[in-house]
Write a structure and sequence with these properties.
Radius of gyration: 25 Å
Number of domains: 3
CATH architecture of the largest domain: 2-Layer Sandwich
CATH class of the largest domain: Alpha Beta
Strand content: 15-25%
CATH superfamily of the largest domain: Ribonuclease H-like superfamily/Ribonuclease H
Helix content: 40-55%
Distance between the termini: 50 Å
Shape: globular
Length: about 500
């Protein structure tokens, strides 16, 4: 169903009835944006908070062109899909300070145009959207503006309410606590937050880098020195997303975790288009989920109809396809591994893939997880092994935790004894590895980075001995990274540097 400014109210009413139905199983979604490229180079070894710093700038800079959202109903063992596609845009609101600017990235414009995006439709007939934070601020602004007559105020308030637009679709999903499914959706979640919830938070999670921790301590409104705790008044990105959507799935994370191993050697792409083609043509021997499109206006995306084209990269079509693939992967998982839907949920709920990165992000908990984990001395990419690691017997878990805490303490004491001129902090991630962070931020001496690296590498030999004594596998790899804050310079050299080691 195509949503425009002219049929918005009717479309939202239909959507509301569908979402509020007891038959609703989940919704799937997709966005098309005016730009998606980061200015800072992304690395496979980025820590989650580093990747957030890079990608959040993209969601703040660019805007949404299309939003697709599909409601999936379940009736016995059959699923029915109701896809909605909308061009959406931010528009200025008279008698307010709200005059949004739209930034276009040439590559994104070309990509969308090549895949059928109608920019005239976007500019002329789009539904509007306004994030809830901006909405509340504008209401206060108008009420407090003494230069406006009561009639002008009423008109402005009415326009603000109308401008909320497509935001209401996602707010309804959050209120109903319906599972929400994306594909490779980390960037989608950033845009979702910045477009419908509010400005992206400064911090990714409570697991902060040393520099971020120091910065928070300088801000009394969000850091309580006495209790050494962060105020709940300032939510992190993970907290904010999870407070709005408690049930997230990512079909990309699911596919790269286990399904990729069943695909042919010459084609292991887990893009929406390739997954659809592979599942549709190669897995007839497994019982595919029984899915149909609802009749009427929803039939535009019926790829079995020879009169229809498959509209890849139209947000509504991709949202429908995302849900279709999610159901097929869930069915395959249960059939192939003799699992239940509850097993599937326990394994993949709130786990999000990040492009070209070694981490899966997990919402609802502070720790994120490595895509490749070490289990019983064996490195494995098999999702069944990865996630079973997080449900060991209580005694085994306690023993692992005890070992890692002992190793962490030994490493911390060792570095303190070596009198490093930098601040050193160690922390444990998922009972699997120790993260060692060296900060030069507040160091008054000009430390020679190369000499520091050599010293650090030499000290790793001592760390290996400690690990071996505790029967813990020696370090996987050593990665040095420098982080520069261009706003802080001292004699032409950045103050804000750090080096990291992962174990």
């Amino acid at each position: 169903m195509q949503v425009t400014k002219d049929n918005f109210d009717k479309s939202f009413q239909i959507f509301s009835e569908l979402v509020n139905s007891p038959k609703t199983e989940f919704i799937s979604y997709d966005f098309e944006m005016t730009g998606i490229r980061t200015t800072e180079k992304e690395s496979y070894n980025d820590m989650p908070f580093e990747r957030y710093e890079k990608c959040s700038q993209v969601a703040k800079k660019y805007a949404l062109i299309q939003a697709g959202i599909t409601v999936y109903h379940k009736d016995d063992s059959q699923y029915t899909a109701y896809p909605f596609n909308a061009y959406i845009i931010r528009r200025k609101i008279e008698n307010t300070s709200y005059k949004p600017e739209i930034v276009l990235e040439s590559g994104a414009v070309r990509f969308n145009a090549e895949h059928g995006c109608d920019f005239n439709q976007w500019i002329k007939n789009s539904a509007t959207y306004l994030d809830r934070e901006q909405y509340n601020n504008l209401l206060k602004e108008v009420e407090q503006n003494s230069n406006l007559s009561q009639v002008e105020k009423n008109n402005a308030l009415d326009n603000i309410n109308k401008s909320l637009g497509f935001t209401k679709f996602f707010e309804l999903v959050g209120k109903r606590n319906v599972p929400i499914v994306g594909h490779n959706c980390y960037m989608d979640l950033l845009f979702l937050h910045n477009s419908f919830i509010g400005t992206l938070p400064q911090y990714y999670s409570k697991k902060l880098s040393i520099e971020d921790e120091e910065e928070q301590k300088q801000s009394p409104e969000i850091y309580d020195e006495e209790s050494k705790e962060y105020s709940i008044q300032k939510k992190t990105f993970k907290e904010s997303i999870f407070s709005n959507f408690q049930k997230l799935f990512d079909s990309k994370a699911i596919s790269v975790s286990f399904f990729k191993e069943f695909m042919t050697e010459d084609n292991k792409s887990t893009s929406l288009e390739n997954l659809k083609q592979f599942i549709y043509t190669n897995l007839q021997k497994y019982r595919l989920a029984d899915i149909k499109l609802a009749p009427g206006v929803y039939q535009d995306y019926n790829w079995d109809d020879p009169n229809n084209q498959q509209k890849f990269h139209e947000a509504g079509f991709d949202s429908y396809l995302t849900g279709w693939i999610f159901l097929q992967l869930r069915q395959f998982y249960m059939e192939n591994f003799k699992k239940t839907e509850k097993d599937f949920e326990n394994t993949f709920l709130n786990t999000i893939n990040v492009m070209n990165n070694r981490f899966f992000l997990t919402f609802g908990q502070d720790e994120d997880i490595l895509q490749t984990q070490i289990l019983n001395g064996i490195i494995s990419d098999d999702i069944l092994h990865i996630f079973s690691h997080f449900e060991p017997a209580d005694q085994q878990r306690e023993l692992q935790q005890e070992k890692m805490e002992k190793l962490q303490k030994q490493i911390q004491e060792y570095f303190e004894s070596q009198q490093y001129s930098t601040r050193v902090r160690t922390s444990i991630f998922n009972q699997n590895f120790v993260f060692i962070e060296l900060s030069l931020q507040n160091n008054k001496d000009q430390v020679d980075i190369n000499n520091l690296k050599k010293k650090f590498e030499n000290d790793l030999h001592e760390i290996q001995k400690m690990a071996q004594e505790l029967s813990i596998k020696e370090y996987e790899q050593c990665i040095f990274q420098q982080k520069h804050n261009n706003k802080k310079f001292n004699n032409g050299k950045p103050k804000n540097n750090k080096q990291q080691h992962k174990k």
